[in-house]
Amino acid sequence: MINIKELEHIKIKELENQYPFILSFFENNKLDVEEYEEYTLEEYLSHFTAEEIDEWAIDIEKIKSDLESYINQMIEFLGLEEDTVDSITIIAGNNKYGDKENFEELTINKSEIVAIVGPTGSGKSRLLADIEWAANKDTPTERTILVNGETPDKSLRFSTSNKLVAQLSQNMNFVMDLTVREFLELHARSRMVDNEEEVIEKIIAAANELAGEKFNLDTQVTGLSGGQSRALMIADTAILSTSPIVLIDEIENAGIDRKRALNLLVSKEKIVLMATHDPTLTLMADKRIVIKNGGIHKLIKTDAEEKGILKELEKMDDIISNMRANLRKGEVLNSQV
Ligand SMILES: Nc1ncnc2c1ncn2[C@@H]1O[C@H](COP(=O)(O)OP(=O)(O)OP(=O)(O)O)[C@@H](O)[C@H]1O
Ligand SMILES: [Mg+2]
Predict the structure, then answer these.
(1) Which of 13, 45, 110, 122 could form a disulfide linkage to 291, CB 3.0–4.6 angstroms apart?
(2) What is the value of pTM for the model shown?
């Protein structure tokens, strides 16, 4: 909920940018803001002379409270509420054998990166799916997911354009026949960005930094390789998505620069959960969930010693990436390098 006090020091011009629907409020209330674009809301509301206030029966306090309810109603109506997730909580369900999981509840806060590790088939993707679905004892694990300590609103759970969660799933196939440009335009429009062209250029540049062979805006999405489409989706999610929760299912397997991909996706304000088999990515996280037989088995914080080991791992990764790059180029490795 927005409080009018938070808006008083914002310029009219910026308010219009952020809440374009505010213009009809001004119109309906016969408030002529055209020449006051550079004024803050407070300055604008206090510029009326005593005569004007008298003559037009202006009630400043009423305007403020009406404006506050109007903005909040519009935000709710348009589904624009964003970044309101401060934490998610996982409440234990059962593992594949029907035994209760080895923890009671786990809360993950904004700005945390959590890795999910465990053998193949152990239930990592299942945990991500439970979060994506905001499970309420209605999935095979019978887990419950809370958002900000509460059962999330049904509209968030079942909405098709689920704004709460940005998900990069393990298997991704483009089914529609669009060019990369058309695909990004569709997405940019649905996110209502105003500098569409700039954003699209940014996404393609970021995607090409992650992928090997470059592609361009006129490439058909169905013609992208596995690694290229993954790179495109990662760049798209990182740059366009405003979802406060980012779920990543294995970024390592597509031959893309996984460390760069993670850094692109991670942002201070978000909650990031990432299923991975990669030790470097695991240690880059603040903590990790260990899954066994479909249940959360252990929670481990990445300590200083492991962060030290991460540095060593990164050096080894560099050596391996160089070798990979050379092999891809068709070179023959020798033991001197
Ligand atoms: N607690 C559970 N109860 C019942 N079924 C479960 C449970 N956890 C996972 N499963 C099921 O087990 C199967 C394998 O799980 P999942 O796909 O999540 O494995 P994974 O760890 O992601 O494996 P990979 O590393 O190969 O991607 C899925 O069908 C999933 O729905
Ligand atoms: Mg999986």
Answers:
(1) 122
(2) 0.74
